[in-house]
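I'd like us to work through together how a protein chain folds, taking it slowly. We need material for that, and I hope you will provide a protein of your own picking. Go ahead whenever you are ready, and we will take it from there:
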Amino acid sequence: MAYVSIESDDRMEEGPDGLQFQSFLQTDARAEQTSGVGGNAARGYIPDRGVRGGFWTVEYYQPYFDIDTKTVLRRCYLTLLPHRASAFLTEHLTPAADLYGPFWTLTTLIFALFVCSSLASSIAVYLSDPASSPDAAVIEYDFGLLSTAFGIVYAYGLALPVLLWLALRYFGVGEWSIVEAVAVWGYGQFVWIPVALLCVIPVPLVRWILVGLAFLLSGFFLVANVYPVLASADAKPVRLIIVLLAVLHAGLALCFKVLFFSYYAVREIGVKDPIPSVPL
């Protein structure tokens, strides 16, 4: 019987310098947990699954709507606290900005303005002369107000932040994303929802106070989050954009008061309204 001598290959020997086997299961698991927008589950988001497609697909926008109700309500509540306003963008939106909360905040505001304005109109007619207005208790809806609210709220809450983001990109400011801009504006209008409910009270002075408080709260919230972004621009005149935003915000508050809460059919209750009432 013949024997053939085979020399051992050092590369096949076990040991630190030899052939080693490595498992990639743990690495894949960690990659899956940390994929998406920086640990979404820890911030109230549903973990992302799969690979996002192009911006024309639904999958591209899905991460911005994967957020639970508790997180949305907390963000809405924080907009009412002036001492927490300056940290809203950095601590509660970045890098987990969403579009679900802003969209439903603006949509709810549209229907709140429409319904509460119709209710305020009926209450004002009834209180003016309840004896001669037996049918005044019936709420009559002016669907023209719905389209007006739709145009004003979406133009201010969606179109304005997009235009501002484009302008800042033109000036070389890239401190925030377009989603963060829309989120700041959308959540910032939350205060108008309870104000719309309270403006059903048919007293001009009360309505002006409520509108003024909402203007100050939402305005301060926007300035606290937008001005640091403007201040990061190399061109100092960019900061003057905040003046234009303040004027637009004041115009929004005035539109809400005049178009939706100035219903006094015959006589007013309390102090006279300085702006003429809307005829019924």
In short: The chain has ten helices and no strands. Residues 10-51 have pLDDT under 50 and may be disordered. The CA atoms of residues 126 and 136 lie 5 Å apart. The two ends are 117 Å apart (CA to CA).
